[in-house]
Amino acid sequence: MLLGLTGGYCAGKNAVASLLEARGWLCFDIDKLGHEALDLEESMEAIAWRFGPSVIRPDGSLDRKALGALVFDDPEGLADLEAIVHPAVYRLLRPRVADGLEAGRKVCINAALLYRMPDAAACDAIIEVLAPLSLRVARAKARDGLTAREARLRIAKQRSFWALRKKVDKPFFYLRNVHDIEYLQAQIDMILKKVQL
Question: How far is 61 from 97, CA to CA, in rounded Å?
């Protein structure tokens, strides 16, 4: 079984992924694979060519902070970066998913941008994690040190996931991450019972 896990910034996807892993699921975090993809030689070369030498440190490693500053308010630059990194992420992800499924594992793709991934169509079911704006802002301030304004701007930049629900003809579940961990666990178990029928 292949499960898609998505949701907005600071909604709680990673908390849900951890609970799935505790239940035996093999979870692939697209953010982590993105970091791995950035470090590939071909990615580094393409990024340096597109964004210039200022994004490469003297030791040859990528200066992610400098790169992030360049693309944060530049839609064209961000699109160019994604065109470099996303194909590399897919090349890393797909054999790992295939190996997990072939080994009989229950596999989860944890991806904020699942709605843009062709892999969404391969999922047997999709869970979207939701949380109120005020709670997401509080989490962003505590976890990432953002101001309330910075957190709201980051949240506002994310596209609605409604498009994903309309695009893929798969069971789609909303998981509301608003209470304590026991409530979250109960919701996950209820959804998994429906998914694995």
Answer: 28
